[in-house]
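sorry for the late reply, my laptop died twice this morning and i had to redo everyting from scratch. anyway the thing you sent over, i finally got around to it. pasting the sequence first so we're on the same page, its 142 residues, then the predicted structure underneath. double check i copied it right bc i was rushing
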Amino acid sequence: MMIAAIGLVLGFVAGFAMPVVPSVAYARYLSIAVLASLDSALGGLRASLEGKYDNAIFVTGFFTNIFLAAGLIFVGDRLGVRDLYLAAVAGMGIRLFQNMGIIRRLLFQRWGVIRPETSREEPGQSSSASPRAPSPPQRPAG
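ok and here's the structure:
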């Protein structure tokens, strides 16, 4: 863990110290690749905190997200619809915030700040009607 933190700090320092400016033609590809990698990283962290992490799913999801998003940009450029990449940005952005909220809740539960959820009630249902509300289906991380 310490090696990863040191590598992250050194990467930020090197990134700010070197005057590397990507070409404008590749700026959308680079931005979507960064967004896809953040989405996959947070999905992997969430899966790890839930005890469901699988390295094969993480790696394939990581590359699938990047290639699918880059493919959307490429197809949009070829069709003349330059804003087609916004579909990938919206989808990954939504998942990014959902995963971040779930990670925060899991960490608070682990640290004892909040109690673990035992059941979820649907709006308008009383707890006496059903002893336990069904939990929502889980999506695989990645």
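Residues 72 and 85 are 6 Å apart (CA to CA).
thats about all i looked at so far, will dig more tmrw
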